[in-house]
Amino acid sequence: MDRNLALDFVRATEAAAISSAFWMGKGNEKSADQAAVEAMRKAFNVIDMDGTIVIGEGERDEAPMLYIGEKVGSGKGLKLDIAVDPLEGTTITARGDPNAMSVFAAAPTGCLLNAPDTYMNKIAVGPKCIDTVDLDASVEENLHAVADKLDKPIDEVTVIILDRDRHEEIIEKIRKCGCRIRLIRDGDIAGALAPAIEDSGVDILMGIGGAPEGVIAGVALKCLGGEIQARLKFRNEEEKQRAKKMGITDLDKKLNMNDLVCSEEAMFAATGVTDGTILKGVQFLSDGAKTHSIVMRAKTKTVRFIEATHKFEHFPDY
Questions:
Q1: Same structural domain for residues 108 and 25?
Q2: pTM of the shown model
Q3: What mean pLDDT comes out for the span 67-78?
Q4: For the segment 98-128, what is each residue's pLDDT rounded down to a tens digit?
Q5: Do 125 and 191 touch, CB atoms closer than 8 A?
Q6: How many other CB atoms sit within 10 Å of the CB of residue 50?
Q7: What angle do CA 116, 120, 125 make, to 5 degrees?
Q8: Which domain holds residue 308?
Q9: Suppose 23 and one of 2, 8, 32, 94 were both cysteines; which one would form an S-S bond, judging by CB atoms 3.0 to 4.6 Å apart?
Q10: Are strands 78-88 and 101-108 parallel, antiparallel or unpaired?
Q11: What distance in Å separates the CA atoms of residue 215 and residue 246, rounded to the nearest whole number?
C-alpha cells in the first residue's frame, strides 16, 4: 500500500474528529455521529483509491453513507477493503467522557474479515506478550502468564475492560488475582490498542465487545506488532444466519490476527475526539482546532503520532 495514502487517511479521520467534537458533552449522540460520518465521507472523495466499505455504519441500518458495500474514493487507485468507525464512542462524545476517536483501517480487497454486527469475545496484548495468552485459557492463567512475561508482580498488571454487567464475573476474577483494572464505558478499539502502546499503562484487554470493532482493532494490532484472539458471540439465530451469508462457515472458530486481517499491506489511522488513553482530543482554538492522530502501516510497523493545527477558514480543506 502506498505510504503516501497515510496522510490522506489521516485527513479523513481529522475531519471526522473535528466535526463530531463540536458536539462533545451536548447529549446528542445522533448529531455527533452524523457530523463525523458526513465529514469522513466527503474526505474520501478526493483519495485515489478504489475502496469498498466492508465495516461501516451498520450492517442492517439503511445508512445514507459509509454503508456496507458502498464504493469510496476516486476509483483510480488500489482496490481496498475499508473498515471505518467515524465516531467510535458516540455516547462517550455526547457525555464528554474519554477515549472517543475517529477510526479508519484498510487492507487489499478480500483481506479483512466481514464481521457481522454482533458481539465478539476478545483478548489482546502488546508485542512483549505475543504467544503468551490464550482466549480459551482461564482468566487467572492469562493474567499470571502476562505478569511472568513482563517480569512484574501480578498486582502491577493492569487490565482494561468494558464496564458492562456481562463482565461482572470476569472482573471479580481479575480482582481476586490482585490485578489493577481500568474500566471504560465504551471505546474498545482504543482499549485493544492500549496494551501495544508502550506508555499507555495497560497490559491486557479482556472481555466482550463489538465484532466490527474487533476487526478494526486487529488491523491496528497487526501494525503495532501486538496480538489479538477473538471469537464471535452471537445473541440469536438471526445473527448466526447473517454471519453465514457473509461467508463465515465456522461460527465457533477461535480467530487469530490473520483471520481478522490476512495481509501485511494494511494501514490504520485514528484521530482523538475526546482525551483518551492513547490520543488527545480535539482542542478548539480562537480560529481553528488542534488534533492528535496516530497512523500505522503493518508492513513496516511504523507508528507515527501527528499533531496538527487546522484553520477554520480552510476547513475542511482536504
A1: yes
A2: 0.93
A3: 92
A4: 999 999 999 999 999 998 889 999 999 999 9
A5: no
A6: 15
A7: 130
A8: 5-112+266-314
A9: 32
A10: antiparallel
A11: 14
